[in-house]
Amino acid sequence: MAHYSIAIVGAGPAGYFTAQALQNAQNEDRIFSIDLFERLPTMWGLVRSGVAPDHPKIKTVAKVFEKVAAEPNFRLFGNIEIGRDIDIEDLTSRYDAVVMCTGSSIGKKLGIPGEDFPGSISAAEFVPWYNGHPDYARLDIDLSGTTAVVIGAGNVAMDCARMLALNPSELDPTDTPEYALSKFHSSNIRKVYIAGRRGVEHAAFTAPELRDLPKLEHTDIHIDADQVSAAHARVEAIGEIEKHTVSNLEAWRLIAEHPKSGHERAMEFRFLSTPKEIKGNGKVEEVVFGINKIENGKVIDTGESYSIPCSLVISAIGYQAAPINGVYFHNGIIENEAGRVLGTNIYTVGWAKRGPSGVIGTNKSDASDVVNLILEDLKEPKATMDIQMLIPESHQVIDQGSWSKINAAEISAGEPAGKPRIKEVSWTKLLSLGLN
Ligand code: NAP
Predict the structure, then answer these.
(1) Looking at residue 281, what DSSP letter applies?
(2) E strands along 247-328, which residues?
(3) Rounded-to-integer distance, Cα 318 and Cα 361, Å
């Protein structure tokens, strides 16, 4: 019986699904001890700090993560940053394999003039802000103007736009942190534009998210019906249509046909619009878009432009991984081949491996593929010295017991208000909840 020790870095979906795949790979010949390291004192990665608060069903996957964590071969080391508190070499020398599940947390830049004006932010800041991430809770998001523009045609852009455009009373029963909830309640934003640079048919939104839009009770959704028909015609002219494009176009048709109620709050989709410049007098005042057209399936700049006056711009155009000391990154991801970091016992799963794509469940198959590679590569187990020896006694580790205390305290704080939880957003207070 071989007993292997595996370190996983990052307690998000990729990390927990990797632990689960390792647990499932145990048999009479091999067992695993799994240590999961997390920089934050809170767990579940994007399930806690990415998924929009008005989508609570998606968060129920956390139950799976807690089941994985309850197994006797699992240890949690929260409030430990690899590359700062513990070097990557300390992991690679002690563990049989190290799996980096550290995600992508830096928003890609538009690279246009005015992008750094106050009032222009990245979804990589706005999303963790409205989700109570301790590093972003103190951001001052200005919602005093009436119009916001969200750039990008993916599900993150959709989440940002919806959070700005829905009636904040819809957030009252959710786990939106108190500071963000009160900001949304006093927000003056009434019109939110979402701009995609290509055609309706090219948008990266997924059909379930589109189909949910007309269900918003207090917000009208606008899309030019002619643009939807034109996209339909273009797609039909090509011939073979991908299944997701068919469902998306059907969802767009329903959105276009859905009766508008004259709500004060509205979301409007603009396609074939490339952001060229953000203009203003020391702060965001308008976004200038170049107008595109599609010819022979190609997106072409017409040379014409239009602008949308606004006070807030959120760019949601993708993410790249944040650097970690001792790990080599290339093009925004950890340099890897199918999850193997060649020449090392390091592996990677999730957005750190493949870039910011797929839904939470995608990480499950990704994790199991990479665990199969680890199984192929494993040799004699290392005689390891417990990593605990490297952590000073003065450093508070959030182990599974401490995390359970934080989790339980948040859930019980939410009960009187009928909320799933009230998130604690101060790092110091989270650490003290972990002690109680
Ligand atoms: P995404 O799906 O890749 O969408 C990025 C969007 O940004 C695309 O429309 C892209 O347009 C656009 N873009 C990129 N560079 C641009 C530029 N310079 N100027 C203008 N537009 C630009 O990424 P995401 O929205 O960040 O989402 C990441 C992943 O998380 C996706 O797989 C998504 O489905 C998933 N997610 C899922 C949910 C959910 O299931 N509810 C919620 C949130 C996120 P082009 O196509 O033209 O490049």
Answers:
(1) S
(2) 265-270, 273-279, 286-295, 298-309, 312-315, 319-320
(3) 19
Confidence at residue 271, expressed as pLDDT on a 0 to 100 scale: 98
Q: Do residues 307 and 315 touch, judged by C-beta distance below 8 A?
A: no
**Closest Cα partner for 207 from 171, 271, 253, 144?**
253
For ligand 1, whether the C-beta of 356 sits within 6 Å is: yes
For tokens 């199918």, name the residue: 338
pLDDT surpasses 80 at 384: no
User: How does residue 141 score in pLDDT terms, banded at 50, 70 and 90?
Assistant: very high
CA of 204 to the centre of ligand 1 (A): 6
Q: CA nearest 70: which of 94, 104, 36?
A: 36
Q: What is the pLDDT of residues 113-123, one digit of tens each?
A: 999 999 999 99
With a 6 Å cutoff on the Cβ, whether 311 touches ligand 1 is no
177 CB near ligand 1 (under 6 Å): no
Cα of 209 vs centre of ligand 1, distance in Å, is 13
Q: How far is the CA of 203 from the centre of ligand 1 (A)?
A: 8
First to last CA, the chain: 39
Amino acid (one-letter) located at 332: G
For residue range 75-97, what is the model confidence (pLDDT) as tens digits?
A: 999 999 999 999 999 999 999 99
Mutate to test the pocket of ligand 1, among 317, 354, 362 (most ligand atoms within 8 A of CB): 317
Write out the two tokens for 371. 């665990």
Rg over CA atoms, the chain: 23
Q: Which of 38, 29, 45 is nearest to 7 (CA)?
A: 38
Residue nearest to ligand 1 atom 13, measured at CA: 317
Is the pLDDT at 383 greater than 90, yes or no? no
Domain coordinates in residue numbering, the chain: 2-105+320-398, 109-317
Instruction: Kindly state which CATH superfamily the domain 2-105+320-398 is placed in.
Output: NAD(P)-binding Rossmann-like Domain (3.40.50.720)
Atom of ligand 1 nearest to the CA of 206: 34
Average pLDDT, the chain: 96
Same fold, 2-105+320-398 and 109-317: no
Provide, for the chain, the percentages of residues in helix, strand and coil under a 3-state DSSP scheme, each rounded to the nearest 5. Answer: 35, 25, 40
Domain spanning 109-317: CATH 3.50.50.60: yes
Neighbours of 2 (CB within 10 A): 12
Average the pLDDT over 330-342 and give the result.
97
